[in-house]
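Let's practice the habit of predicting before peeking. Look at the sequence and jot down your guess about where helices and strands might fall. Then scroll down.
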Amino acid sequence: QVETLKEKLLEQAQEISRLRSELGGTDAEKHRDLLAAENERLRQEMKACEGELRELRRQQQAPCRDCPHLQEKAGLQEQLSQLQREAEETRAKLVELDLEVQQKTNRLAEVELRLKDSLAERAEEEERLSRRLRDSQETIASLKSQPQQIKYIIKTVEVESTKAKQALCEIQSRNQYLQEQVGMQKQVLKEMEQQLQSSQKTEAQLRAQIVMYEAELERAHGQMLEEMQAMEEEKNHAIEEAFSRAQVEMKAVHENLAGVRTNLLTLQPALRTLTHDYNSLKRQVRDFPLLLQETLRSARAEISQAIEEVHSTNRELLRKYRRELQLRKKCHNELVRLKGNIRVFGRVRPITKEDGEGPEAANAVTFDADDDAVLHLLHKGKQVSFELDKVFPPQASQEEVFQEVQALVTSCIDGYNVCIFAYGQTGAGKTYTMEGTAANPGINQRALQLLFSEVRGKAADWDYAITVSAAEIYNEALRDLLGKEPQEKLEIKLCPDGSGQLYVPGLTEFRVQSVEDINKVFEFGHVKRVTECTNLNEHSSRSHALLIVTVRGLDRSTGLRTTGKLNLVDLAGSERVGRSGAEGSRLREAQHINKSLSALGDVIYALRSRQGHVPFRNSKLTYLLQDSLSGDSKTLMMVQVSPAEKNTSETLCSLKFAERVRSVELGPVSRKAELGSWPSQEHLEVPKRLLGDSPGSAAPPGRGHASPSPGQLSSRSASIRRKLHTSG
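Done guessing? Here is the structure:
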């Protein structure tokens, strides 16, 4: 109901404001007293309503102190205060309206005064004009009775009367204008009277609404009184019920108390027994910490002993596991050697600044802590594992890598063909592994240094000659890096001796005898090799580089001649043209590189599936590596991979190719050794000692050696061949 009253008051304020806007141009002076009286009556009614509300609030405070409607009463009080504030605002608006009515009444009085003045002026002007008109008529009448002179005067008067008529017209037009103004003012007064009548009708409607609101307020007051009376009755009824229940419960409590008293008399002996038991338990609890500490101490000792036994067992098992792992790897390497499989090593380069920053430069390669032949690649959210013969992490040094391949290098001295080639995508570190830097050389220079070291160690019995050739395959053309004309194209042909071996006619060979000679050869060949800058590698190799080291040895004691060849190959990296940004000649180079590497993959597939025809001649690279891939060589592939996240697709392809290469069996390797003829008798004395002749059988000092008979020579040759066959 208070909300309804609030809405009605708002409507009343809006209606008053509308009436105030409509009364802006009316004659408010006539109705000002009426509106003021009506306003005063409305104020008195408002005060009466406020008094009734205060009376209702006083009546509600006493009986409804504990009533559940307190929250609602607080809300009503808040709404009442809001209504009071709105009533104050309405009073202020009424005061403003009175001021505006007073101002408009004053303006209307001024207009009426101006209208009265204008009417008076008009009456005076009409009177003056009428007097002049009468004077003129009298003059005209007097002049008509006179002679000719009178005619002249009449004409003159007529002229003067024309001017008077013109002035009279002006006065009449002004009079008409004033009449129009008076009519307009009367019309405005009529409109204001109509608005006043509508305001009176609205006022009557507002009074009827106020009467209706008062009736509704009385009805709401009656309902509230009835509800309060009903709540009072409910409260009294609830109090009576609670009192009766309390009496019943009190009676039950008294009965229970009597039972408890009887039970207390019977429970005293039991209480004494419980007290005795409690004292004994208290003593046990007091002694419990000591017993607990002693028990915990013994338990800790037993647990520590068990843990130590488990640790020792684990250490022993780990030691056995590692020993078995090394033994398995040794057996596997021996099996690979016997089968003639291509051994595959993997090397992961470290993350560099060229890889950039962010998620694309994250490390996607992890290693097995217990097995150095396994690595894991995270590709598209899935982990793929690969098993090779050996895996080198990024922190592995050039020395550690060479220690794994030096056994192959030294077998070159014994007459075996050895091939080591680096494979991988561009920018994976192939050239660094094979060539290295001046301060940290790679496999090529370390291999030659090791060969010189081995040759010096066998200098007492063997004569060795080491020659070096360097070539590159650029755009499917074989070029000599050590020749005077490196642009000259060379061809690969079969040896004319009928051995089936391949050789390159016209390929320059340098005989090296010291480390200085090695450095000169490397510098000379490195300058002529083709390298260019791409988006993936600042110094990208654009050709396949081959370093061919030939070691020819002669055993001075037996005449045994050995020929070993060491092929060190740095393959150009596979690349995606879209990522490397190759154009023009770089694009043509990339196409030839990818074509030759694809041909190498075809050869590996044919060897793995044991096909009758192996397509070695599809590329200059595979044709030149035919000796190394056809079972007549110890072959090692060093696969280079990048750990960067953005290169995982290329890394996956390289590792899959490495696994396929690892499963290729080339067969047992043969040794290139032959017996040579001895040019003099002195060379036969050593075989004599090898055959077990006594020192006494040698010729006395200072004498010449006797020539052996043909039978003795043939028997010695046969025994030497048997010993060489056994050693081979």
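How did you do? Confidence is low (pLDDT under 50) at residues 148-159, 535-539, 677-728.
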